[in-house]
Amino acid sequence: MDFIQDGEPARLKSLNVGQPAPLAYRGRWVQSGFRKSPVLGALWLEETGLEGDAQADLKAHGGPDKAVCVYPLEHYPYWRERLARPLEPAAFGENFSTEGLLEPEVCVGDVYRVGEAAVQVSQPRQPCYKLAARHEVKELALWVQETGRTGFYLRCLEPGEVRADDAIELVERPPEGVSVAEANRVMHRDRRDAAGIERLLALSALSASWRRTFEKRLAGVSESAAPRLEGPG
């Protein structure tokens, strides 16, 4: 449905890209595209992601459902205090560092116009061990998950140029209105919430990977809830 946004639009404060490079993890080196740097000027965004950006592990990262990783700058003060250190730009490996897009307010399936491109929210970000490796804090991925300060992924619906300081304008929201925060709750905390799983599976915009996870989980919940027939005594 069409959506008219009230107030000021959100904003893309930093546009960040990077190429795979070695990252230290548990005494060995792994290839990772986690380290990203801000870019001045415009970059082309298309279905496969941003010009100049790449991922090392294409099974877990990248692809049409994860063309852009978004992280809110509003979370940075919390992490600076908890980690007791300064944080450089793109410290969470994000492509878009934003203001005005927080997990309780952003919904899976939301369509935004940023620069010349149109993008759609596909799923929350699910932090992996490389976030912990980057900051040398083994619990960090779990902390991000537990706090709900995850950020989220976008797919690209219409290619175009984007640049830092572009407005991010909400132009369409699905009537179901399932927030990123709610999706995180069902995925990570209330894992057997069948009604919550069904609400997420009803979203056509939900990423393929999260859909597979929820379908398997719902099948398990249904199986465990089925009455068991007792054998003859």
Report on the structure:
By secondary structure, the protein is an alpha+beta fold. The protein has one domain: PK beta-barrel domain-like (M1 Pyruvate Kinase, Domain 3), CATH 2.40.33.20. Helix content is 25%, strand content 27%. It contains six helices and 13 strands. A seven-stranded mixed barrel has the order 1-8-7-11-10-9-13. Helix 1 links the parallel strand 7 and strand 8. The longest helix is centred in the last third of the chain and has 18 residues. It is globular. It starts with 9 loop residues before the first strand and ends in an 8-residue tail after the last helix.
What is shown here, in short?
The protein has about 230 residues and is α+β, with helices and mostly antiparallel strands.
Task: Chart the SSEs and their pairings.
Elements: E1 10-17, E2 21-25, E3 28-32, E4 37-38, E5 43-46, E6 49-50, E7 68-72, H1 76-83, E8 96-99, E9 111-114, E10 117-124, H2 129-135, H3 140-147, E11 152-158, E12 160-162, E13 167-172, H4 180-189, H5 194-201, H6 208-225
Parallel strand pairs: 7-8
Antiparallel strand pairs: 1-4, 1-8, 1-13, 2-3, 5-6, 5-12, 7-11, 9-10, 9-13, 10-11
Helix pairs in contact: 5-6
